[in-house]
Amino acid sequence: MLHSAKNTHTDPSPPTSSSTTAPPPAKLIFAPTGGSADPTKAVQYLQGELSRTTLSPSPLTQFHAWFAAAHAAHVYQPETVTLATASLPSGAVSARVVFLKELDTRGFVIYSNWDTSRKAADVASNPRAALTFWWREVERQVRVEGAVERLSAKESQVYYDTRARGSRIGAWASPQSQVLGGREELEERVRRVEERFEGVEKIPVPEFWGGVRVVPEVVEFWQGRESRLHDRFRYEKEGEGWKVERLSP
């Protein structure tokens, strides 16, 4: 007769939290006050408010109105925007500050290198992006999420022609985001491009450079309010129109 052997194996006790948890890092920055007159309290946002009745039915016309108001309030470079992209399949996210150059009836347009840059690689694997505008002087923020589409070379040429000649040369010369051996390497590339287009006023837009449009599916307008009880309204694409909802701060 076979007898079952008694199982004498004992699972080790799970490690204690003290053995697996690293000590908290020393705080290099903690709760900065952002220029508050009282160093013990954070800055309060008091410049405005936002209600559903004041919003346009379209987020694009609402953005246009806010952008004009930012200009009128002398916001420094209100076209400055953070562009965030993500690579698939890793899901790694990257962000950088760029300039909005156009707003049209389809969306928000920026220009860049779409061959060698990190954003180009991200968009090639995941043609979606997010934009964030922050206008400190009026205590407003706008967030945009949507699909990305390339502009045609003809469309890109129109904006490219408005750039200073040095910037047009630079677009040809710079393999954006690629490693350089030194500044002199970049300067040599610029010299060669200048020679190539010497005496040419109408420089063609590089095939690897141009505009992309973020076609919005979600747009949020944020107005700072006292005690961090901000006004937030989100537009979400719904058929041919937009659903607008107030969000909790």
Automatic annotation (TrEMBL):
Biased composition annotated in UniProt, kind: Polar residues: 1-11
InterPro entries the UniProt entry points to: Pyridox_Oxase, Pyridox_Oxase_CS, Pyridox_Oxase_N, Pyridoxamine_oxidase_dimer_C, Split_barrel_FMN-bd
Biological processes annotated in GO: pyridoxine biosynthetic process
Family annotation (SUPFAM superfamilies): FMN-binding split barrel
PROSITE patterns tied to this protein: PYRIDOX_OXIDASE
Domain Pyridoxamine 5'-phosphate oxidase N-terminal as annotated: residue spans: 70-195
Residue ranges, annotated region (Disordered): 1-36
One Pfam short name: PNPOx_N
Gene3D superfamilies per the UniProt record, alphabetical: Electron Transport, Fmn-binding Protein, Chain A
Keyword annotations from UniProtKB, A to Z: Flavoprotein, FMN, Oxidoreductase
Record-listed E.C. numbers: 1.4.3.5
Record domain Pyridoxine 5'-phosphate oxidase dimerisation C-terminal: where: 209-249
Enzyme class at the top of the EC tree: oxidoreductase
Sample GO molecular function, one term: FMN binding
Cofactor: FMN
Pathway: Cofactor metabolism; pyridoxal 5'-phosphate salvage; pyridoxal 5'-phosphate from pyridoxine 5'-phosphate: step 1/1; Cofactor metabolism; pyridoxal 5'-phosphate salvage; pyridoxal 5'-phosphate from pyridoxamine 5'-phosphate: step 1/1
PANTHER family given in the database record: PYRIDOXINE-5'-PHOSPHATE OXIDASE (PTHR10851:SF0), PYRIDOXINE-5-PHOSPHATE OXIDASE (PTHR10851)
Protein name: pyridoxal 5'-phosphate synthase
Organism for this UniProt entry: Lophium mytilinum
